[in-house]
Amino acid sequence: MQEALTAEQKIRLALTGDPYRDPHFKSEGEDVVHVLSGGSLPRAWVTYHHDGERITVRCAGCKQVLGSFPADYEPVETVRCITAIQLAGHEGHMPADWPFMNITNRRTGLE
Ligand SMILES: [Zn+2]
User: Is residue 12 part of a domain?
Assistant: First the structure.
C-alpha cells in the first residue's frame, strides 16, 4: 500500500531527497547565498567575503563585486551600502539552484 506523504514530508523530500530527513541549512561561509530584500528595493542574491574591516559583497549569480559594508555592521554605513547593492541592477541574477545550494545534505545522486 502506497503511503501518502504529508505536506511536511513532501517539503523534506524536495529539500533533502528524503521525506524523513531534516534539511540542514548552511549559515555561514563564502558559498552561502544571502538574499537582500527590503522595502521597495529590488532583491539581490549575494555572497559575503570577509576582507579585514570590510565585508565584500558579490553577486551570487554573476560573481561580480557589488560593494562592501563594514565588518562591524555599523548601521548607517551598512544600510547605505546594502541599499546601493540592491540598486546595482542584479535583481535578475537569481542563482539557478537557489535555494538548494544552501542545504548541505541535499541528495546529489552521488551518495
Ligand atoms: Zn549579477
Answer: no
Q: What is the dihedral of CA 104, 52, 57, 65, to 10 degrees?
A: -120
Residues near ion ligand 1 (Cβ under 5 Å): 59, 61-62, 90, 93
CA of 37 to the centre of ligand 1 (A): 15
The model's pTM is 0.75
Question: What is the chain's pLDDT, residue by residue, as a tens digit (111 residues)?
Answer: 567 888 888 888 888 888 888 888 777 778 889 999 877 899 999 999 998 999 999 999 999 999 999 999 899 999 899 999 999 999 999 998 888 888 877 765 554
How many domains, in total, are found in the chain? 1
Question: Does residue 85 contact residue 8 with C-beta atoms inside 8 Å?
Answer: no
Rg (CA), the chain: 17
Position 8 in a domain = no
User: What's the CA-to-centroid distance between 89 and ligand 1, angstroms?
Assistant: 8
